[in-house]
Amino acid sequence: MQTSFIQKHLNILDYALSSLLRRKLKNGGIALIFSLVIFLLASFQFLTQSLETTAEKVLVFAPDITLQRLSAGRQVSLPDSSIGSLAGIFGIRQIIPRVWGYHFDEKNGANYTILGLPADSIQKAEVSLSHGRLPQKKKPGEVVISSSVRASLELGERKSFTLFRSDLSQASFTVVGIFTDNTDILTGDTILMNLQDARDLFRLGDGMVTDLAVSVTNPAETDTIAAKISGIMPDTRILTNSQIRKTYRTVFGWRSGFGSVCLLTALASFVILAWDKASGLSQEEKREIAILKFLGFQINDILALRFWESIAVACVSFLLGLTLAYIHVAFFEGSLFTPILLGWSVLRPSLNLDPAVTFADLLLVFSYSVLPYLAATIIPAWRSAVIRAETII
Amino acid sequence: MNIELENVCKIYNQGKANEVKALDAVSLSVEPQTMVCLRGASGSGKSTLLSIIGCVFPPTSGKASVAGKQISRLPARFLGLYRRQVIGFIFQKFNVLPELSVLDNITLPLLPLGISPAARRLRAEPLLDKLSISHRRNFPAGEISGGELQRVAIARALINDPPFLLADEPTAHLDSKLSLEFMEIVSDLKASGKTIVIASHDPLVTDHRNVDSVIDIHDGCIAH
Amino acid sequence: MLFNTWGLALSIISLCALFLIATASRTAIRVLRFWDPNSDSSTQIELESEIWLSSTLVMYGLGFQIISLLLFVLAADHFSGMIIGAMCATGSFLANSYGIPVLLIKIAGVFIYGIWIILHQLDIQSEHYPLIKIKYWYLVAILPYLLLEIILQTRYLAELSPEIITSCCAVFFGGKEQLGQNLLGTYSTTGLMAGFYSVAAVLCGLCLYQLSAKKLSAPINIGAGLTWILFFILSLVVITVVVSSYIYAMPYHHCPFCILKAEYHGLGYPIFLTLFLAVFSGISHIIAGFCNNLPGLAAPVRKLQTLSARCALAMLCIFVLLSSYHFWAYILFT
């Protein structure tokens, strides 16, 4: 009995496929539009997903706690002497004063991340170079750049270049090392230099830095230490690594949700279209169903036939839409949606997105595209299934 | 394997404004292995009668039994399940699906029974041979001649090996030569043990020598 | 978190399910009011075909419910990356008081739809449709249940507040991350496992008895049904408290949801699937037993009972093996 049940559905599936192929135009049109809708929804999901993962990769390198001073709600520089007031907190392993900012190079329109660290911290930093060495103490103007920065500066074999300070005077630098490409996600647009050189470039006063990077001995104590710091330096913004991570996820999640709400209109119109197409049966189709019913197909067999047809259309569209969305995000950086997700460029000026598609993502896209479509086709399918057999006599 | 109808009435659209009484207190019985003709003008109710015998829909009132089973109060689902076991039906307009091949058309009733493609082919082959249409088996049904189409329709009605074969105006779209050919085929089927009921007003059918009895229907009643 | 993609997807599925069940309920009410098997009126003919609409809708409803349950768990796991103090799905469910109730309602929903389908499958095999009234009263009752689920789910999502870095100065954000957040307190492992294995053994015996003997008396039937429900709850507790931490090889992580993750080879999927199938088959057997004496149902009931007893037995064995593997592997080999 079980084998004949399966065989029956195989038979009906087979018939459904041949019946779909007989009506290529109608079903192909539906599948195409459905693919487009799924493409839009899936692109969005993949884009947010890969932004999240990229953000996490970047944040692995971020300090446990970052301290910034706020004035009038804006970030301002702070003196590195404030390190002293934190010295008494137990559990802090290290505090590194940093100058961390962006430099817009008007010559070629590129945006570089400038990272200035004290010379002894640079030597201890866990960065790997493909060749050269790290900037040394008391050697002004020495920098490490990535190969992509070298390309954008059009250095070729030259070692030195200049950048404009804010007063349009020029600061000159000498390349002493190149980052490996492995850390491109982090160092792709970075120029690493001595703290003093970075202050000079940004015209920060002596002893001023943009933020303090605090690392702690025991990561589980991060929140406690952050609380203590906030007690000592009430005018600072204290960002912990995990909070930044959660914020990114929330913001991306919210943005993609907002985008999805907009895309839902596309889904809704598609569902209406699918309903309409499934309802509008031609005389030929009605006659075919009546013949099938006369020949012994029951209402549930016709419903199964329609079900398999819908599943086939949905599967083809789902696969097509997902593939296109993957290509869109992986190779075109989700360019259709960057205006909506604008702002992530604050994270990295340029990103190579690598959508890691998980089962959960697929199920998510499936449930807000395929399920509404299936739900929309049930009632029209039933209406067609109850066409009376005797209408052909 | 007989058919018994007792005081059968059929009212279409009961309880609505367009209510129509198609059959009024019809009683008849059909003996096994006979060929019976229902004769009447169009609109006389003979198609309705044939449909009730053919388990297409139940009568509104009265008793009907086909092959020993009471079908008068059977829900539509069970009527359909029973129909596909005991009834083979041949239509006036053949009602084949023109885009499917001859073989696929013939084996269509086997799909919901869960029979595999190979087994379906195996069951169709003897019928294709018997009705000499095996050379057409892979042709789309829309591209074969009227006579062949009629044979396809017969083969399809026989694929489940039902004890009853019902035909509704089977010769309406055939010339006299093909009509006679059709009658020869059904005569053979009768000889092989099938019970045959034909609704027709074609004299070539009603006056055929192998027809055992003719029942005249007029305005939903049996004329005596 | 309503306007997060996950929240949206959950809401969309729920709305689709509501649409399905509301449409089916319309048929249900019409059947309850107008069903008359002795009539040949147009209404009766329409109702006979509407039965198919309603049953198809409920079958889709079951499918939607299963997907929605799975998606709910996966969403909770995803939310844990945004919620204060949540480390995994457990934390998200505990983030407000609606999480766990919604989860339980969704789990029970799978059984509620499933049992309706069993009743329907039995009903349509008899020419008398003997269960038609019960079946449609039952269907009408599903609607408020579904509404309750949707309301609680919406409240859960709406009250789930994500952690956002605000721009005011010197704010200390959020609470601490807790490492060992658990659904249930600690129980004696030995006692639990002993109970688990003995109930499983009783049920195995029950299945074998059901396969050999023809009928069970009504009180035994009820007892058997209750044992299956007890087993389901006990299994969830055992998975949460004992089995999961052996799978994770982390003594303080007792979470029934993380076993679905790829890190643990998705072992949770077969575990939960076999558990659901075993309990569902077991309960189907009991329910079919009560329909035995209805007109025209003796043969279909016998067929269903044989199938369900076999299925329950097989699934039960696989479930017990799968869920105890890591536990015994640890006890015996380390």
TrEMBL record, chain A:
Spans through the membrane: 28-47, 252-275, 302-322, 329-347, 359-382
Highest taxon above the source species: Bacteria
Predominant location: membrane
Biological process per Gene Ontology, one example term: lipoprotein localization to outer membrane
GO CC entries: plasma membrane protein complex
Alphabetic keyword roster: Cell membrane, Membrane, Transmembrane, Transmembrane helix
KW Membrane (keyword) present: yes
Subcellular location: Cell membrane
Domain ABC3 transporter permease C-terminal, residue spans: 282-384
Domain (MacB-like periplasmic core) ranges: 29-230
Keyword Membrane listed: yes
Membrane topology: Multi-pass membrane protein
Family recorded in the similarity comment: Belongs to the ABC-4 integral membrane protein family. LolC/E subfamily.
Name of the featured protein: FtsX-like permease family protein
Organism field: Candidatus Desulfobia pelagia
TrEMBL record, chain B:
Entry's Gene Ontology molecular function annotations: ATP binding; ATP hydrolysis activity; transmembrane transporter activity
Keywords, sorted A to Z: ATP-binding, Nucleotide-binding, Transport
Highest taxon listed in the record's lineage: Bacteria
One term under GO cellular component: plasma membrane
Domain ABC transporter: 3-223
This protein's name: ABC transporter ATP-binding protein
TrEMBL record, chain C:
Residue spans crossing the bilayer: 51-72, 104-122, 134-152, 192-211, 223-249, 269-291, 312-333
Keywords: Membrane, Transmembrane, Transmembrane helix
Name assigned to this protein: Uncharacterized protein
